[in-house]
Amino acid sequence: MTEDSAQTDQAERFNQARTAQSMALLEDYTEMIDDLISEHGEARVTDIARQMGVTHPTAAKAVARLKREGLAVSRPYRGVFLTDEGAAMAERVRVRHRIVVDVLLALGVPADAAELDAEGLEHHVSETTLAAFEDFLRRQG
Amino acid sequence: MTEDSAQTDQAERFNQARTAQSMALLEDYTEMIDDLISEHGEARVTDIARQMGVTHPTAAKAVARLKREGLAVSRPYRGVFLTDEGAAMAERVRVRHRIVVDVLLALGVPADAAELDAEGLEHHVSETTLAAFEDFLRRQG
DNA sequence: TGCAAAGTGAAGCCATGGCTATATGGTTTC
DNA sequence: GAAACCATATAGCCATGGCTTCACTTTGCA
Ligand SMILES: [Mn+2]
Ligand SMILES: [Mn+2]
Ligand SMILES: [Mn+2]
Ligand SMILES: [Mn+2]
To answer: For chain A, which domains are there?
Structure first.
């Protein structure tokens, strides 16, 4: 590999990490909304905000972005609901989160650290890596 | 655990992930500058920019932040240098990056995916998790 | 030595994701 | 039904991290 293509590759890695990061907020919110609806029958902005550890205007802005990206719907003073696409994302994210935690635990990471780190790590686990994680967990069984 | 403290814990996880993310840029740039100095004897803003996959004003702004945080020094139209603190960060980051890649490889992740994902994952690996990773690699060894 | 190219800096734009403060719509309770 | 309380919306602030454009040094080469 030439020095030039090495530079290109490195830049691509940083770009991929930036892209993954820009999806992180959408992923966490869709999962959170789905959780709230499952547990309480509805997802109110105030509950979303408390759960995410942000103020309610911040949560409202995030919901606006979810709607703009076709992941959620809501009407003024009513709860937030996920579109099919949003629900699909929530499901994917939930599964991936669990797999990441399970892999960390299998590697001997303490449970509390595993949960803490997984919340950030999950967004940078590609499909390829996720598949490898699943294989690993099956072998470990 | 009460429902209330579960909410608090969850919010803390998101906060930790946000904090980790805010360190990511500093970590990647210090490592990059250290690399460039090792390989070419100096770290110029243009080279940093190309390597990071951003425009030069973006890299210059990042360098300004590094200086503000005491990690780097530079004078107008001269290269960028790391402080002792910056160099220490670069070294930590480099070691951690390699460990993350090694763990992924040991789990059966293809090499290219391992390198791609590691660039984002590394910033969310806590000291505790890193220690567990090192133990795992030693056992695997 | 001088000029062109390359590198650097400065200004100003945008989107994102935090925040506070304030206004307004809904709900509950008396 | 009105008051009080709660939830939601809106406006506006800040920092970050992208970008383009333009101006100014520095450097290298004819
Ligand atoms: Mn997360
Ligand atoms: Mn998660
Ligand atoms: Mn990185
Ligand atoms: Mn790295």
So the answer is: 3-83 (1.10.10.10), 88-140 (1.10.60.10)
